[in-house]
Amino acid sequence: MFEKEIKEYERVRQEYQQKIADKMGREQWMEYNEILFSAHSCAIEGNSFTVDDTKILREQGMAMVPVGRSLLECTEMSDHFRAFDFMVSHLDSPFDEALLKEVNRLVTENTLGYRVPRAVAGEFTTEDMVAGDTVFGDHETLIARVPKLMESTRKALDDGQHPMVVAAKWHGYFEYLHPFRDGNGRTGRLLSNFILLKAGHPLLIVKIEDRAAYISALKQIRTDGTDEHLVTFFFKTAVERMKSELAQKRRNSLPVMFF
């Protein structure tokens, strides 16, 4: 299953790695990805930061709050940077519950108290969850399934399943469990990218423009009992991003007339 998508993805990934990632150098490439990924991942949850706003905050810190942005949004973005940096610097960590909780703690540490005063960052919810028009299941029942999800994901990677398929499947079922009081989406997207980066693949960036399609693919796991749509969405999103950046590089390499 997904043989066609894997073949196309690997073809584009090889070209992208050679012409974009390798030529940028790892440090610059990771900084570029951190800004793009943080801007779009937080925007999916309602943060109004643009990519330019995110770049300013990343470079200058909280000393330079972009015009028109709230302190809460700045803090949320700063927390996301810390979680991203932790993820990238701990790719040798086991994919387990401790990693999951630490990423969630970092991504919500300085905003959770404002949104949910009684909740503890990095700890599972003590209440049943709701998000948008979705009422999730009994929180204790869902949380009890987290260890099995982490274990089955490790086994899938050990068995040689394609990292993009594993990342998508893990993400879909993690969001289905929705075990934290806040930050489930950001945590899920970070750890999907942990899977990809650990395997040497480019980051997957779900853009705010694709939010509706992304949410729809996630919902189909609950309504139709299948993750096929989300896996397809992951492959499509990854390939489109790489093709777009390759095309941009080709355009910007063409000769121009200065006078």
Query: Which stretches are poorly predicted, pLDDT < 50 over at least 5 residues?
Result: none
| pLDDT averaged residue by residue | 95
- SSE sequence, one letter per element: HHHHHHEEHHHHHH
> What share of the residues does DSSP label as strand, in percent?
under 5%
Number of helices: 12
What structural keywords apply?
259 residues; mainly alpha; two-stranded antiparallel ribbon; 2 strands
Provide structural commentary:
This protein is an all-alpha fold and 259 residues long. The chain contains twelve helices and two strands; from the N terminus they run ααααααββαααααα. The chain has helices at 3-24, 26-44, 51-60, 71-89, 97-108, 112-115, 139-143, 146-158, 163-177, 184-198, 211-223, 228-252, and strands spanning 130-131, 134-135. A two-stranded antiparallel ribbon has the order 1-2. The longest helix has 25 residues, at 228-252. The protein is globular and about 65 Å long. The protein starts with a helix and ends in a 7-residue tail after the last helix. The mean pLDDT is 95.
Topology:
Elements: H1 3-24, H2 26-44, H3 51-60, H4 71-89, H5 97-108, H6 112-115, E1 130-131, E2 134-135, H7 139-143, H8 146-158, H9 163-177, H10 184-198, H11 211-223, H12 228-252
Antiparallel strand pairs: 1-2
